[in-house]
Amino acid sequence: MNATNNELVQSFKNYWAGSSNKPTGKLQTYISQWRQFHLQKAILFLILTVALIRLSWFIWKKYFVRRKELSGSGKFFSILEIFTSLSGFLTWIIVIANIQGFINPYSSLMTKIIPAADSATKSIFKIMKPQIHTGDMNGKTAYLLHDFAIYHLDIAILGLITLFILLWLVIYLFKFIRDNSLPTLQQIVALSILAIVVLLLLTDLLITIANFGTFFEPDYALIDALSGKF
């Protein structure tokens, strides 16, 4: 998307001055471009994630499931296993973030508009915040609040899916380490990967709970967002 922050802010002000509750005009154009931008990134990082996971699984089967002694190049592949596993998880997080931006581009685009807001736009936010607080909202404020809630529901659902995948992986790794007598280096690598997955699982759990909480009570979270507190 080639729009500058000033152009985004101006499009929001023009939309606010109009009669439609849904984004129109330039703002709608920028939202469509923002959605396309996130779709392209989601596809790119999904391909990268699949490639990393396939490479990680190949190394795991070759050097861990078969329990080969690691020497020479095997030690390199042991380090590569940790790198590809961690990189695969991180790129999947980027995929989730971009899917969120694709599904709800309006709220996602607001994260660029709010920090760049000029005095006139901040005045609009000052009008919106009391409306959100009291629940007596005009159509535009209500539309943003609803989109903001769904925006967090999407990330919570994707986080929940990720949670089950990570939980399955923790169980698999725990049973594998418990049931197999691994050479020392493989055991260290397997335990390191298990520790990373457990940390990711706990982090994902907290983020998922927080996003479900925002979905059920989006009011104060949106007020904080309009105040620049992300």
Main sheet specs? none
Structural class: mainly alpha
Unreliable spans: none
Radius of gyration: 23 Å
Whole-number average pLDDT?
88
Q: How many distinct beta strands? A: 0
Number of helices: 8
The best one-word shape is elongated
Q: Termini distance?
A: 22 Å
Spell the H/E element sequence: HHHHHHHH
Indicate the percent of residues in helices.
Answer: over 70%
Describe this structure in words.
This protein has helices spanning 5-17, 25-65, 73-103, 105-113, 119-134, 139-179, 184-216, 218-226. The chain has 230 residues and is mainly alpha-helical. The longest helix has 41 residues, at 25-65. The protein is elongated.
Give a brief outline of the structure.
This protein has about 230 residues and is mainly α. The protein is about 85% helix and about 0% strand.
